[in-house]
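Protein in question kept in full:
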Amino acid sequence: MSDVNIKIDSSHESTNDVNHKSADNTDNKCANNYVVKVEMTRQMSLPTNLTSNHLPANSAPFLSPPQSTSSADPVHDLPPELLQQGWRRFWSKREGRPYFFNKVTNESMWDMPNSSGQYDPITDPLGIQSPVPPTPTDPVTPTLPTNFGHWPQRGDKRSLSMDDAITGQPPAKRFILNGPFDLEVHTNVIIWERSPLMLFHAHPELEALRAILVTKLRQQYHEMCHSRENIETPKESFNRWLMERKVIDKGCDPMIPSDCYSEMSRSMYNEIMNDIPIKLYKPKYSGEARKQLSKYAEAAKKMIESRNASPESRKIVKWNVEDAFQWIRKTLNATFEDYQQRLAHLKQQCQPHLTEAAKASVESICTKIYHLSCEYAKKIYQKNIEVLTADGLKESGPLRVQNPKKVFCYPVVLTHPCPKLPPVHIFTDKDMTHLRYKNDSLRVSTLYLQKLEQLYRYNCFDDRKFNLFLTRVWCLLKRYQTWFGSNESTPTQGALPLSVFSVLQKHFGVTFECFASPLNCYFRQYCSAFADTDGHFGSRGSILNFYPVCGSFEVNPPFCEELMESTVDHFERLLGNTSEPLSFIVFVPEWRDPVPKVITKLESSKFKRKHLVIPAYEHEYRSGLQHMCDKNELNVKSAHGTLIVFLQNDSGFLKWGPTPERVDELIEAYKCGRDKDIPILSPPPTPINNQKSESDKQIISESGHKLDDSTVSVSNCE
């Protein structure tokens, strides 16, 4: 990490922010472990004893978090009612007069707030006991969630930029991290405010336990396939089972299924059946085709003799197998096509009987794996309760939003309090950084660790001093290591080329990824598989539980047919329920033998505006392990074509429609090697101007930063 050139501006934090933080330290005990915001979105404060996991003095130079050393007094010279609501008094040195700041809602006002008609945000965070109900917001105009304290407030409320305008001093510089991503693109996605999720915070002990149980479940699946069906586990079948189950799962664990209305997975059942009696592959030569035909016939005969099949099934299978062997012995000069046709004929005659003979056994495998999964999820839940109890915390009940407003999308919020997190050790080795908890060391590229830090700075609001940053990064890495598995490849986490993302953002207004992770995301707003570990780094949760009313999206789902079908159904409901501009650009593999249901749904959708196909081996995808793999292995050529479908409502088509010029730019961006033509992916520093553009004046970011007149380039890698 020491090789990375980092420039940090010392004016990252204003004096007033320091005073606010000092006052918060004085009054943390009254927050009772955490505070839920009035608008039921993000802000939660930690217990005062959560001070572990400080960065060691000799650790690698991250983008340094702000530090606070001073305090203001008197800050509590207010009526008891206002103190109870979180108000404090501070002094503005620039204005020479006092102002009032609410440490719960992050509101700033010049005049003393009126305590009449207000509710107590600590004892009654939802305002349900307030005699005067909140006034609903006009649903036509989106607003920013008021619970994100650093977002500018409207009306008669003080902001730091007012002091800058009076004194003429330049605004504080902010960080821009250059790399294979663009974290400075602001969102255009609008949603209704939503309730926090009933999930536990990630903890290293729990992640270690989950990794052990998931690895054990994988091994049990492998052993059952080998012992009962005499086949190897279908490649990536377990990962697809996890994704297929989570589409319908209502359990409490973010990864392990535990509450599905159907115990048997149709996805797992079909994948096992496809490999019975042997796994077929596409041969290249006639010799390989002849060998495969012989192996299939022999395996079919052996299986039908060892299973409890009907006499009729035994007779049909044996007769067809003997006929195939006679044909192989008699036909010495058969062509490649002859062997393939004979294999297809033999499979057509024997496979229904083999399937019927193996049906009960395969169903028992699927059911057994699900029951074991429920048992392991229960163990993790009990461990979560033990961790909370050890810190004197309890589970929180469900929380709901009253009078929701339209807001720009924001990261997910968890209802349960965050327990004390243990420290994680860090050390660097050239371009890689290692994080170690106990004896478990995980590695990540230094550049991507800086990316995670930038995402954390933008999206995490319960850990401003970065005390929990390294522990949460370790939990994130451990979760995805568990997800991938030790022997699994990673096509489910492949990403589009950088040049394609650039064109999507420039010409189609895309600012949001529907399937990503903090490790492979291009934008800083995205949906991901694990809200509990990814939420601190900007995740909006699962796309199936995300309900936007406006925005432009990139959709590159994992290769799980059930998940892709559910996603398309979800998009069609969203497009039909809003009149505001909404656009989804869907990228799916062009499978035609047979044609999956998802492609049929996409091509027949009433919201389809255009579709095009990028041929196989003429385009690339970025590796799912881009956060740790070698630079020479980043881009992988696609072995199948990619189908691109534009799903848009009428207003979305008018705003981001696939015109011929835009489509040509997209096709050109897909050519192999185009990523090398993009040397800098994040915007360069903006020159200082007295006259700002209209786009600079708009507050469109969920982080609340306005586009400043000056920026700092932090890193320029890759």
